[in-house]
């Protein structure tokens, strides 16, 4: 009897072992799915420089602008687009974010730049050009950026090493106060500075897109006419009046949309009225 029992137990153990081995073979036959790291986006095809002339209005207007720009970066910029963020608070140029494709870093920088707040830029990646590395410092920067002409020339010089066409989006609430109020020096038109500024932009292949956020169309804004001419002569466009900012930003992003390995220039921006057609504007 004991002998029969031992034989039965041995047979059961053998059967269990064979069953386990079969299951192990079945499991090993199932293909294992591994999550691969996303492929690199490839070389940068377009560079955008966002310049905010601070302050840009009340809290509501600044919040709306911040949301519109951040959503534009998230949905309209491609993985091969890099951008930098700069504020022009008073007469001081502040780099809020050097060139990067990090959308979170850009979003945080935009929120600070719109409000004229200091913001520590994360370093530019090794493969990207750096604004901070090429901008003049201290008193020299303050002296050279005392006017809008100077600020644009300084920024143009800082992107010398950036290849190809570049887009400079310049946000301002009118480019100067009404004629009845004191006008900051940076908004004063200066005929002798126009051509050097135009040449600085053209020689670096910079398209200028001034986005005029003024809401009182009856007022005279000293530098609006100058910006309108610079935009036209560099292949950009003076955007005014701004009724649907998200749509305007979408058009700018599509104006030089990458197709394959080439940049195709598209006349995506619907021609808008001259700023002078809605209010008085002084030329340079």
Question: Describe it for me?
Answer:
The protein has one domain: von Willebrand factor, type A domain (Rossmann fold), CATH 3.40.50. The strands form 2 sheets. The protein has a 5-stranded mixed sheet with strand order 3-2-1-4-5. It has helices at 2-29, 59-75, 103-114, 131-134, 138-144, 148-158, 191-203, 224-233, 245-255, 275-278; strands at 46-52, 81-89, 92-100, 166-172, 206-212, 258-259, 262-263. The N and C termini lie far apart (115 Å). It is globular, with a radius of gyration of 29 Å. Strand 6 and strand 7 (262-263) form a beta hairpin. With 284 residues, it is α/β, with parallel strands linked by helices. The longest helix is centred in the first third of the chain and has 28 residues, at 2-29. It contains 10 helices and 7 strands. Residues 4-9, 20-24, 26-40, 259-268 and 276-284 have low confidence and may be disordered.
């Amino acid at each position: 009897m004991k002998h029969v029992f031992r034989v039965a137990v041995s047979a059961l153990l053998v059967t269990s072992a064979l069953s386990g081995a079969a299951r192990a073979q079945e499991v090993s036959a199932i293909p294992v799915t591994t999550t691969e790291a996303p492929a690199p986006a490839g070389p940068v095809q377009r560079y955008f420089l966002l310049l905010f002339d601070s302050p840009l209005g009340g809290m509501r207007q600044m919040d709306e602008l911040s949301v519109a720009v951040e959503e534009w970066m998230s949905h309209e910029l491609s993985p091969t687009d890099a951008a930098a963020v700069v504020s022009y608070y008073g007469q001081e140029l502040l780099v809020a974010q050097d060139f990067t494709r990090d959308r979170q870093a850009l979003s945080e920088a935009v929120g600070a730049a719109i409000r004229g707040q200091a913001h520590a830029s994360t370093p530019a990646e090794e493969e990207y050009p750096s604004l901070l590395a090429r901008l003049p410092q201290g008193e020299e920067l303050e002296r050279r950026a005392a006017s809008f002409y100077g600020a644009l020339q300084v920024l143009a010089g800082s992107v010398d090493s950036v290849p190809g066409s570049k887009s400079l989006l310049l946000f301002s609430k009118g480019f100067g106060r009404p004629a009845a109020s004191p006008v900051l020096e940076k908004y004063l038109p200066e005929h002798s500075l126009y051509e050097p500024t135009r040449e600085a932009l053209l020689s670096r292949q910079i398209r200028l897109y001034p986005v005029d956020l003024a809401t009182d169309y009856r007022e005279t804004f000293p530098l609006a006419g100058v910006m309108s001419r610079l935009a036209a002569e560099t292949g950009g466009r003076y955007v005014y009046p701004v009724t649907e900012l998200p749509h305007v930003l979408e058009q700018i992003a599509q104006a030089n949309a990458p197709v394959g390995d080439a940049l195709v220039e598209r006349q995506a921006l619907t021609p808008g009225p001259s700023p002078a057609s809605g209010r008085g504007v002084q030329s340079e």
